[in-house]
Amino acid sequence: MYFRLAVCVTLLLQCTVRYNVAMSRPKPPHTVRYTVRLNRAQGERVAALKAQLQTRSDNEVFDYLVTAGTNQRDDLEQLVYSLFGDLADSLAHRFRSLETLSQLHLALTDSFIKYALTALPEVPQSLMARAKVRATEIYEQVNITAAREFQRRRESDAYSAAGLGLEEE
Q1: DSSP string, 40-55
Q2: Which of 114, 94, 99, 105 is nearest to 146 (CA)?
Q3: How far apart are CA 99 and CA 51, in angstroms?
Q4: N or C end of the chain, less CB within 10 A?
Q5: Considering the entire predicted model, what is its pTM?
C-alpha cells in the first residue's frame, strides 16, 4: 500500500509539474491581445504591406497601421481646426470692414443732414402745413428711389466685396 501511495504521489507531482510547465505564462499587464479575422484579399494585402514595409511580423504591420491611422486622424483634426480658425479670422475681418463702412455711411449722412438744415431757408408759419405735406411726399419719393437703386445695384453685383473695395489682395 505504501508503495502504491508513493507511486501515486510521484505521478501526481509529475503531472502537476508538467501541467504547470505546459500552462501559458500570464501576459504582462501592458499587453493586449486581439484576434483578427481577415478574408483572403485582406490577408494578401497585409502580406503585401508586410513585404513593402519589410517588417518581421504581422504585429509590426498592425502597429504601423494603427499608428499611421491615428496620426492621419490627428493631422486631419488639426487641419479642420486650422481651417475653422482661418474662417473665423476672415469673418471677423469682414465684419470689421462692414462696421467701418456703416460708420462711414452714418457720418456722411449726418454731415449731409447738418448741411441741408443750415442751407434751407426758414419756412413761414403760414406755409408750414403745406411744407410738411410736401416734405413727406419728397421723403417717401427719396426712400422709393433709394430702394430701387439698392435693388438695381444688388442685381448688378455692385455690393460684392470687390465692388465695395473690401477685397483683400
Answers
A1: HHHHHHHHHHHHHHT-
A2: 105
A3: 61
A4: C
A5: 0.40
| Higher local confidence (pLDDT), 15 or 161 | 161
Q: In whole angstroms, how far apart are CA 60 and each of 46, 65, 159? A: 11, 9, 59
Q: Which residue has the cell 442751407?
A: 119
Cell of 144: 422709393
- Measured distance CA(167)–CA(169) in Å, rounded: 7
Please tell me the least confidently modeled range out of 34-38, 68-72, 137-141, 159-163. 159-163
Q: What is the pLDDT of residue 46?
A: 84
Rounded to the nearest integer, the mean pLDDT of the chain is 78
Helix 40-53, helix 58-119: angle, nearest 10: 90
Short-list 111, 128, 127, CA closest to 119:
111
Distance CA 38, CA 58 (A): 12
For residue 53, give the nearest of 37, 75, 32, 68 by alpha carbon: 68
Distance CA 169, CA 164 (A): 14
C-alpha cell at position 80: 479642420
Residue 23 CA to residue 32 CA, distance in Å, equals 19
**92: Cα separation from own chain's centroid:** 16
Coil, strand or helix: which one is 57?
A: coil
